Amino acid sequence: MSGFVYMMSDKPRGVIYTGVTSELLGRVWEHRNEVRKGYTTKYNAKLLVWFELHPNIVLAIQREKSLKRYRRDWKIRLIEGLNPTWLDLYDRIDEIENIYKPHPGTVHWPHYN
Description:
CATH topology: GIY-YIG endonuclease
Number of domains: 1
Helix content: 25-40%
Number of strands: 3
CATH architecture: 3-Layer(aba) Sandwich
Oligomer: single chain
Distance between the termini: 17 Å
Strand content: 15-25%
Radius of gyration: 14 Å
Shape: globular
């Protein structure tokens, strides 16, 4: 089962929520429709501004934990590398291919080729 790491926001360069899921469309729909109360509800982070695909959920969880340690300005550069104007990508999930590729010197991720 593949996994996704994603970021939600309320506006360009606004709050940033980082999450992980095996079913991106459904999980983002839950955020947008406030199915569960939490960070995205409290801060109105309903815009899917960034996501990447991983071959399995375990690697996606590792990546999510890693991203949560990064500083905000680094996350903003990551988002703007895929989505410079912070558009809501929800309706374009199937059109965008953003597969995670580790840095060429990385040996920690043997499942990627």
